[in-house]
Amino acid sequence: MSEFQLYCFAQSGNAYRAALMLNLIGADWEPVFVDFFKGGEQRTPKYRTEVNEMGEAPVLVHGKKKLTQSGVILTYLSKLTGQFKPQGEDEELEALRWIIFDNQKVNGFLGPYRFLKNFAKPAGDPAVMAFLKGRIDGNLAIVDKRLGNAPFMLGNRATIADISLCAYLYYPAEEFGFDIAGTHKNIGAWLERIKALPGWKHPYELMPGYPLQL
Ligand SMILES: N[C@@H](CCC(=O)N[C@@H](CS)C(=O)NCC(=O)O)C(=O)O
Question: Nearest residue CA, atom 19 of ligand 1?
Answer without folding.
Answer: 70
